Amino acid sequence: MDSNSTLNQLKAALPPGQMPSSYRVYFKSTLIALCHALEDHILKSTAQHPAQEPLVLVTFQEGKWYMQEADRYLSIAQNSAAVAIAACADSGFEQHPTGQLDNVSLIELSRDDSLANEWNLIIVAPGYTAMVLCHELSPEEYQADTQPRNDVERKFYGLWTFDRAAVEATATILIERMRPYNAALADRLTALQQQMSTSPDSIPIDLTSVVSRIVNYLQDSQEHLITASRQAQELWELEGHALRVNRNMTANKLQAFLRMAQRVDERDQDNPLASLQVAALAETLGQILDLPTIRLRRLRLAGLLFRIGLAEAPLEVFKQPASQLRESELVTWNNRAYLGGQLLGAMAELEPVRLIVSHQLENWDGSGRPDGLRGEAIPLESRILQLVAHFQELTQARGDRPALSLSDALNKCLQHSGTRFDPTLLEHLSTIVRLTEIGMMQLPERPSQLPKVWLEESLSPVN
């Protein structure tokens, strides 16, 4: 990364150890989602509190500007005190209505300015501050086998924060980097920043809702890659599958499977909400990965049924960690995915769900069961289910093993990156845990939709 980058200048400006903890390498889709969520917050907060009109500083990479973003910034500018947009020539601003607004200033970056390689969003308002800073990895900074093959695989050094001190310092840095292009504009932006800082608003701004919209934007950010013909085909497929799934949900056999899975949870006194929590977190990861609706439904159902293979397991399986089980109990535990697949095989309509459950114990390095699948050969939904199930189990007590914190459970999972678990999925889970630990979101306790049978009260206690 260029030594003059805004990220490196911020690192030098802050006291040692004060760099935001979010500083790391991110996939492009995550950063797009963060930027969109923060931009959306401008519209929401200004509508509720007009005095919160912010100063917005934006830079776009050379050649990475899309005109749909220009339309988006038209609304953002109309709800901001001032917007300064830095981009190389031919970005499309000059001709777009956004560039014609009185409170929008355009800075035409020189292509040899390192700022042209950055993608930044800085928001300074009286009641809150926020920013996302990004700098794409150079080809030399990728590992030999991780060079991006398409747009969604691109990676960026990045950070995001709501800390006012860090945001204010970055705003100052970026304004000074704009000064050689327009000194008068830099003076106006500096004065406006100082005005925002010295006139804090007493109305509290709730930023926790921002993160809840991140997942929704991940799918939207990819729409420009889908052709009209593919959209039509996908809609046709979703419509047909949705009708079948809706019919299946009312089938007596499916209800029996769901009741069986629920009773497994009821037998597990230490972890009675396992299936609900696994289904919910698996669904969240699926949304982050932009899975189509039909695959999300299958993943959600597989999460609810992931322990059905333990329907006849002895109670000791639910009382001790796997390392302390006797041999006969360990056989049942190790074969739970295979047994679950066998049960679900009785219902042909659940074949996609059966495959997910059957392969949930396959390992990324090929050492898993039942088929020893390796890497991308393992169904994505099965990889998600395996990681989420292990993470959720670690957060609950089991025998003499205490429940781990979210961070400790994540670290345990990270120890198996590239061997047991898909490294990319671990990156996404790390982001979710980080957002949860700083109070910006809560881990979902239930999936977005539940079959009615799961909400019924048990008719009798289960021994």
UniProtKB/TrEMBL annotation:
Annotated keywords: Kinase, Transferase
Ranges where the HD-GYP domain occurs: 249-445
InterPro entries documented for this protein: CHASE6_C, Cyclic_di-GMP/3'3'-cGAMP_PDE, DICT_dom, HD_GYP_dom
GO MF annotation list: kinase activity
Superkingdom field: Bacteria
Pfam families, alphabetized: CHASE6_C, DICT, HD_5
Transmembrane segments: none
PANTHER family associated with the record: CYCLIC DI-GMP PHOSPHODIESTERASE TM_0186, CYCLIC DI-GMP PHOSPHODIESTERASE TM_0186-RELATED
Protein name from the UniProt record: Histidine kinase
